[in-house]
Design a protein that fits this description.
Number of strands: 23
Distance between the termini: 78 Å
Largest sheet: 8 strands, mixed
Helix content: 25-40%
Low-confidence stretches: 323-385
Structural class: alpha+beta
Shape: elongated
Bound molecules: adenosine-5'-diphosphate, magnesium ion
C-alpha cells in the first residue's frame, strides 16, 4: 500500500471526530472561544437541537481580517504566544476547533476588531472574506452539522436530547464564569455579574434556595484553594446532573474529584443518590495537567491523593457542622398486637427494664394454634410437637427469640443463631414483590399537571415511550409542565418527584434505555420507605411473619442496596467462643 499524506479536509474531519461529537461540543468550543476573546455577554441559539443551526454571538475582541483568515486553518491559535505548553491560561490552545467544526458543517464567521475600519465576513466553504457591517465582537454560524459526514449524523439523538445536552454544557460554562452573561434560545438566561448563590439557584433550580452550604478552605502547605457550595445532605438528586466541578476554572468530570465528593457524603447519603455542588479547586498550574484529553474534561493531578484527602476533609468538616445540629432519630411507636402478646410470658420479671434497653424479648415457652393463626403466611405446623424448635424445624430461619436495639431480630432454628436486619429484610421482600408484579396502568379522570423546568420537560418527553411501558402516560403541557394521563395503578406516588428524578437521569446520561427498570426500582425505593424501619418495635408474630417472608423471597440474602439481610451463626461457632468443642 502506498503511503500518502492525507488532504487537509480529511485531517480536519478526523480531528473533528475526536472533539466534535454532537451539537453540544460545538457550542462548548465556540463559547470557550468567546470567553477567550474577553466577551462578557454571549448569546447562543440552536435550531433543531443544533442540527440545522448553531449560532454563537459574543461581544469579545473580534478578529482582524488577517486573523480571521488564519483562524480556520489547522493548528492556528492566538493563545500560545510563547511556545510554553505548561502555562495555559486560555480555555483553548490547540487551534483545532474552528477548522474541525468547519470541516463537518457550513460555517460563516462575522467579526469586528477595533483596529479595522469595518467588520469582515468569512464563508469557510468558499474561503471568501468580504467586508461586513458587523460592529461588535464575533458571530459564528454553524449550519447543517455533520451533513458532510452522514455516518456521524446517524449517531445524533433526537432534537430534544441534543438540546438538553446543549443546555447542560451552557450551564456548566455559565457556572464557571459568573461575571459573564449567557442567553440560550432566549429561554435560559444567566445575567452577568450574578453572585455565586444567585447563579446556583438560576442553574440548579429554586429548590436549592437556602439549602446549599458554602465552602472556602485553603491549604497553605500545598497551595490549594477550594471554594463553592455543596448541598445539605437532605438535598439530593437522582443523578450527577447538578454536580459542577472546576479545576483552575475549567469544568471537569474528573474521577478524583467525583470520588472525593462521594466519599465525603458516604455516611449521610445513599450510594444511588447524588449531592449537588458547585466546587472550584484552584491549585498551582504545575500541580495539574489539563492537556490530557482533547475535550479537556479530564485532568491529571501530580498528587491525586493529596487533592483527594484535602477535598474530603474540607467537605466532611462542613457537613459535620450540620449533622451535629440535626434532630435525633424519631422512633416509631411500639406496635401492639394484643392477642399474640398476651400469650407470651416474658421471661424476665421486670419487663420494663428490658424495654428500657430496647430489647424486646419473646418467650420461647409455649406455642398454641392461635399463635400460628396470627402469623401471616406461616403454614400451619404439625401440632404433635414438644418444643418450639421442633415446630419451626422446617423453616430455615427458625423462630424469633427477641428483638434487639429495635432493629435486629434474633432467631434460632435449633442449630444456629440467626440475626436479621428487619429493615433490610422487609425492603428486600417489598422490592421482590414489586418486581414480580407487572405494572398496570389506570387512566386518570383529571390529568395531573406537573410543573417542571423547560430542560426537565424535554428530558422526560424524550423518554415518554419508555415511561409509558412502565404505566405512566405523559404529554407535553406547555413549555414548563407535563400532564400525566395514566398512572400505574396501585401506586400513589409523588409523581412530580418521580418525574424530576427521571429528568435528572436522562439529562445526565443523555438517554436511558433502562427507564422501565429504573421506574420499577424507583417504585421499590419509594416502597422501601414504607417498609418496617429500623427503630420500629415488632411483636413476635410480626417477627415470625417476616422470617417466613424472607424464606419465600428470591435473593433474600441482601437488601436491594446490597447490604446483608441476615447472618447465620452456627452454635458450633458459638461453642468455639466459649472454648467448648
Ligand atoms: P484555539 O481556541 O485552540 O486557539 P480555535 O480553532 O478554537 O483554536 O480558534 C482559532 C483562533 O481563532 C483562536 O486562537 C482565536 O484567535 C480565533 N477566534 C476564534 N473564535 C473567536 C472569537 N469568538 N473571538 C475572537 N477570536 C476568535
Ligand atoms: Mg478554541
Amino acid at each position: 500500500m502506498p503511503v500518502r499524506v492525507l488532504p487537509d479536509f480529511l485531517v480536519n474531519q478526523i480531528a473533528a471526530g475526536e472533539v466534535i461529537e454532537r451539537p453540544a461540543s460545538v457550542v462548548k468550543e465556540l463559547v470557550e472561544n468567546a470567553l477567550d476573546a474577553g466577551a462578557d455577554q454571549i448569546i447562543i441559539d440552536v435550531v433543531d437541537g443544533g442540527r440545522t443551526l448553531i449560532s454563537v454571538v459574543d461581544n469579545g475582541c473580534g478578529m482582524t481580517r488577517d486573523d480571521l483568515a488564519k483562524s480556520v486553518s489547522r493548528h492556528a491559535t492566538s493563545k500560545l504566544p510563547d511556545d510554553n505548553l505548561s502555562n495555559i491560561t486560555y480555555m483553548g490552545f490547540r487551534g483545532e476547533a474552528l477548522p474541525s467544526i468547519a470541516s463537518v458543517s457550513n460555517m460563516t464567521i462575522d467579526t469586528f476588531n477595533v483596529t479595522e475600519p469595518h467588520g469582515w465576513q468569512l464563508c469557510v466553504d468558499d474561503g471568501d472574506i468580504r467586508p461586513s457591517d458587523w460592529e461588535c465582537g464575533t458571530r459564528i454560524r454553524v449550519e447543517n452539522l455533520f451533513a458532510k459526514t452522514p455516518a456521524r449524523l446517524k449517531f445524533l439523538h433526537g432534537d430534544r436530547a441534543e438540546l438538553m445536552a446543549v443546555v447542560d454544557i451552557v450551564k456548566r460554562l455559565a457556572m464557571s464564569r459568573m461575571d459573564v452573561g449567557f442567553i440560550l434560545n432566549n429561554k435560559w438566561r444567566f445575567p452577568k455579574n450574578q453572585d455565586l448563590s444567585e447563579r446556583v439557584i438560576a442553574i440548579m433550580g429554586d429548590d436549592v434556595r437556602g439549602r446549599m452550604l458554602d465552602i472556602d478552605v485553603s491549604s497553605s502547605s500545598s497551595n490549594m484553594h477550594l471554594y463553592g457550595v455543596i448541598s445539605e445532605p437532605t438535598l439530593r438528586r437522582a443523578s450527577s446532573v447538578d454536580q459542577y466541578l472546576f479545576v483552575n476554572n475549567r469544568c471537569v468530570k474528573d474521577k478524583v474529584l467525583v470520588g472525593a465528593l462521594r466519599a465525603a457524603y458516604m455516611d449521610v447519603m445513599h450510594a444511588r443518590e447524588f449531592p449537588l455542588c458547585a466546587l472550584y479547586l484552584n491549585l498551582d498550574s504545575n500541580a495539574v495537567d489539563v492537556n490530557v484529553s482533547p475535550a479537556k474534561t479530564e485532568v491529571h493531578f501530580l498528587e491525586p491523593s493529596h487533592v483527594r484527602s484535602f477535598i474530603i476533609k474540607a467537605l466532611r468538616d462542613r457537613l459535620a457542622q450540620t449533622i451535629t445540629d440535626s434532630k435525633p432519630v424519631q422512633f416509631a411507636p411500639r406496635v401492639e398486637s394484643a392477642p399474640v402478646q398476651n400469650m407470651f410470658r416474658t421471661f424476665h420479671s421486670d419487663n420494663r427494664n428490658w424495654e428500657n434497653k430496647n430489647i424486646n424479648v419473646c418467650s420461647p415457652i409455649k406455642t398454641t394454634p392461635d399463635f400460628f393463626a396470627s402469623v401471616n403466611n406461616a403454614p400451619t405446623p404439625n401440632q404433635n410437637v414438644n418444643s418450639v424448635d421442633d415446630v419451626f424445624s422446617d423453616f430455615p430461619l427458625g423462630h424469633a427469640l427477641a428483638q434487639i436495639g429495635n432493629k435486629y431480630i434474633l432467631a434460632t432454628n435449633g442449630d444456629n443463631l440467626i440475626v436479621v436486619d428487619q429493615h433490610a429484610a422487609h425492603e428486600r421482600i417489598t422490592y421482590e414483590h414489586l418486581r414480580n408484579h407487572a405494572i398496570k396502568s389506570q387512566p386518570l379522570l383529571t390529568p395531573i399537571v406537573v410543573n417542571l423546568r423547560a430542560e426537565d420537560v424535554m428530558a422526560v418527553l424524550s423518554v415518554a415511550d419508555e415511561i409509558k411501558q412502565s404505566g405512566l402516560t405523559i404529554e407535553e403541557f406547555g413549555d414548563d409542565a407535563v400532564a400525566i394521563f395514566e398512572k400505574p395503578s396501585d401506586w400513589d406516588l409523588n409523581w412530580g418527584a418521580v418525574l424530576h428524578d427521571i429528568a435528572d437521569e436522562v439529562r445526565a446520561n443523555g438517554h436511558s434505555s433502562q427507564l422501565g427498570e429504573r421506574l420499577h426500582l424507583k417504585l421499590a425505593n419509594y416502597a422501601c420507605h414504607h417498609s418496617v424501619r429500623a427503630g420500629q418495635r415488632l411483636d413476635v408474630a410480626q417477627m415470625n411473619a417476616l422470617l417466613r417472608d424472607i424464606e419465600n423471597t428470591e435473593r433474600a440474602g441482601q437488601c436491594n442496596h446490597g447490604r446483608p439481610v441476615y447472618k447465620i451463626i452456627p452454635f458450633s461457632e458459638i461453642d468455639t467462643w466459649f472454648e467448648r468443642s
